[in-house]
Design a protein that fits this description.
Number of helices: 5
Shape: globular
Radius of gyration: 18 Å
CATH class of the largest domain: Alpha Beta
Number of domains: 2
Strand order of the largest sheet: 1-2-4-3
Number of strands: 10
CATH architecture of the largest domain: 2-Layer Sandwich
């Protein structure tokens, strides 16, 4: 087992580490909710990034069993969340890794590495950023405050304008995907 993952499990969740139980009774993921995970992934990308470990109980830190024949279902579900439920898409690394449970038996969990993004991401419930081990709701205007410093364009349904200290007003033009003074 990777010592980095071992330490994550030992010390628990924080601003860059999140544990998630996952339940796949048939051919689809039943828990957690797709929209909730999309919010968490967008929040991580909008902040410093994070590592998600699916198959670890967040309350007990116990490694849970994800049946090996269900791993591809879970991976596809996570890939679809990153590509389709978060706008713009989050480029995450999804890996199946072995982790020992409390009895020393190797189990497979899914590790999702979400990097800090240059874009501001929207999820089904809106804009979020990660504060501590939780996603925090964010208004679109607040989410855009860091965009000029990230030097990126941002897609949105509306036009946003604001004035920055020492600069003229900035406006966002969604059809062009650019900010202009």
């Amino acid at each position: 087992m990777d010592s980095d993952v071992k330490n994550m499990i030992r010390f628990g969740e924080d601003s860059v580490c999140e544990f998630k139980s996952i339940r796949i009774p048939g051919k689809r993921v039943a828990e957690p909710e797709t929209k909730d995970i999309a919010d968490e992934i967008a929040a991580a990308a909008n902040a410093a990034g994070a590592v998600f470990l699916f198959g670890i109980n967040d309350k007990t830190k116990e490694v849970e069993v994800i049946p090996e024949d269900k791993l591809d279902i879970a991976e596809a579900w996570l890939r679809n969340i990153c590509n389709d439920s978060v706008k713009p898409a989050v480029v995450a690394t999804i890996r199946k890794i072995a982790v020992c449970d409390s009895a020393g038996i190797e189990r497979c969990v899914i590790r999702v590495d979400v990097p800090k993004s240059l874009f501001v991401h929207e999820s089904p419930h809106g804009y979020f950023y990660r504060s501590g081990s939780s996603p925090v709701t964010n208004s679109f205007a607040h989410a855009c405050r860091g965009v000029p410093s990230r030097n990126v364009s941002l897609m949105s349904r509306g036009r946003v304008s604001w004035t920055s200290a020492g600069r003229g007003g900035l406006s966002f033009f969604p059809r062009l995907g650019v900010f202009r003074a």
